[in-house]
Amino acid sequence: MSVPTPHSELSHVWPIGSEIDGAGRLRIGGCDAIELAREFGTPAYIVAEDDLRARAQAFVAAFSSRNADCELLFASKAFPCTAVYRVLAEEGIGCDVASGGELVSALRGGFAPERLVLHGNAKSEAELALALREHVGTIVVDGADELERLERQLDGGKAPQRVFLRVTPNVRGETHDGISTGQADSKFGVELADAPALLDRMRGNDRLDLRGVHMHIGSQLRDLTPFRRAVEAVAGLGAFPEIDLGGGLGVAYTSDMDVPSIDDYAAAKVGAVHEHLGSDVRIIDEPGRALVANSCVTLYTVETIKRNVSTWVAVDGGMSDNMRPMLYGARYEAHVADRFGGGTPCHVVGKHCESSDVIVRDAELADPRVGDVVVTPVTGAYGFSMANNYNGIPRPPVVFCRDGDARVVVRRETHDDLFARDV
Ligand SMILES: Cc1ncc(COP(=O)(O)O)c(C=O)c1O
Question: Residue 156 belongs to a domain with what CATH number?
Fold first, then answer.
């Protein structure tokens, strides 16, 4: 199944089903963005539920049409929100968690424990104990120290624990250093040369059920070649019943960006497995960003406009609801939600006490005014998950929209919430 194209007046970056109505106002999931801002306040994360479902279905179809035995896992660090977990669990995919907190969130979101895969480069004794207690399906062992820690906790009376070994294939994709993980010198996984000894040790432990190797070479990759090279690199480690290929498909953040389709991504990965490992291998893939990023937009309200050397359009959020521009120099686009089009070169900035708090440098808004609702698309991945309370700003709500109905799935934080942990 392919992902349908949004309304013709809007580019491919917007959630499926988004449109600009006859009055020039943005609608997401059938809901008027200005009304949403009025009803739920700003900043707010607005999610088109149908978009989430369509992308999950597209990933499942793209992989399962090419390999008889596959499993898709939601890399939940991208959007660890209970309602998002719930939708994706309903769509029949499994879930990758990278900490004890994500593990309990995924269970709360309705994932069966056997559909969970635990990752993490520094899993604690307590996180491993929690995973074993909750009967988490699979643990991806990240290194020798962790293997020892896990072995100490294994209970001889239980069925063997399914495990993979994470390896770094020494393949670097083209992406920001902060999200590149496939190079040999990485904090994640073990080098190819060190893998055989650990795999032997895992094979020799009858309380472990070694299923294969795991790799994840990085995120926001727009060229598919490194995925193929990575499969070729790990193929030398031998034959296993399963392979976990991680995630990594890039998404279009701005209208001028092109990215491979979900179908092309699956074709490249599955094709490489068939070429180097044969067609009897169970394939696991872990999309995060490409599953959720385009499903969500953030609504802000313009608080002030200053004209000095540049025009600075300051909104009521910023680095507390979207860290990616500051962490990775990530580019977004911004629009006035009821006045699309450019005309005024400006910088869209947040309200935080940092000059780095720039959401969109060199934006073009249509005659921005104080009180306007400004929207940034493609905020579904790592917006909510990296949100913080810098400057005591309460975190935004998450609002799901579908067929013209809007419902709050995470309420806005209150000032009282800021003191919830005081003792
Ligand atoms: C182990 C693992 N799997 C999957 C993913 C998902 O990657 P992406 O969001 O690029 O699809 C990540 C992201 O960092 C990861 O660390």
Answer: 3.20.20.10
Q: Are 59 and 205 part of one and the same domain?
A: yes
> Do residues 197 and 227 both lie within one domain?
yes
Q: Tell whether 325 is covered by a domain.
A: yes
Domain that holds residue 396: 8-49+293-419
Summarised one tens digit per residue, pLDDT across range 393-418 is 999 999 999 999 999 999 999 999 99
- Does residue 324 fall inside a structural domain? yes
In this structure, the answer to whether residues 76 and 204 fall within a common structural domain is yes
Q: Does a structural domain hold residue 1?
A: no
Which of 236, 262, 291 is a domain's end point?
Answer: 291
The residue type of 396 is: P
Dist CA 322 CA 318 (whole Å): 6
> Hey, which residues does 401 pair with through a beta bridge?
48, 406
CA distance 119 to 131: 11
Place of tokens 């992989």: 63
How many Å apart are CA 14 and CA 17, to the nearest integer? 8
Assess whether the C-beta atom of 248 lies below 6 angstroms from ligand 1. yes
Q: Helix H segments across 365-408?
A: none
Please choose from 289, 294, 324, 384 the residue to mutate so as to test ligand 1's pocket, defined by most ligand atoms within 8 A of CB. Answer: 289
Indicate the pTM of the whole model: 0.96
Q: Tens digit of pLDDT for each residue in 52-107?
A: 999 999 999 999 999 999 999 999 999 999 999 999 999 999 999 999 999 999 99
Q: Are residues 12 and 69 in the same domain?
A: no
Per residue in 355-364, pLDDT (tens digit) is 999 999 999 9
* Total domain count, the chain: 2
54 and 146: one domain? yes
Q: Which amino acid is it at 261?
A: S
Residues 93 and 231 in one domain: yes
Residue whose pair of structure tokens reads 């424990």 in the numeric block: 113
Distance CA 238, CA 231 (A): 12
Q: How far is CA 201 from the centre of its chain?
A: 33
CA nearest to 193, candidates 226, 161, 234: 234
What is the predicted pLDDT for the residue at 2?
47
Residue 181 Cα to ligand 1 midpoint, Å, equals 10
- The owner of tokens 């390896």 is 167
**CA gap 44, 397 in Å, rounded:** 5
Mean pLDDT of 316-340: 97
Q: Which of 63, 77, 167 to mutate to test the pocket of ligand 1 (most atoms within 8 A of CB)?
A: 77
Residues 331 and 376 in one domain: yes
Supply 287's token pair.
Answer: 């999309």
Q: Rg for the chain (alpha carbons), in Å?
A: 22
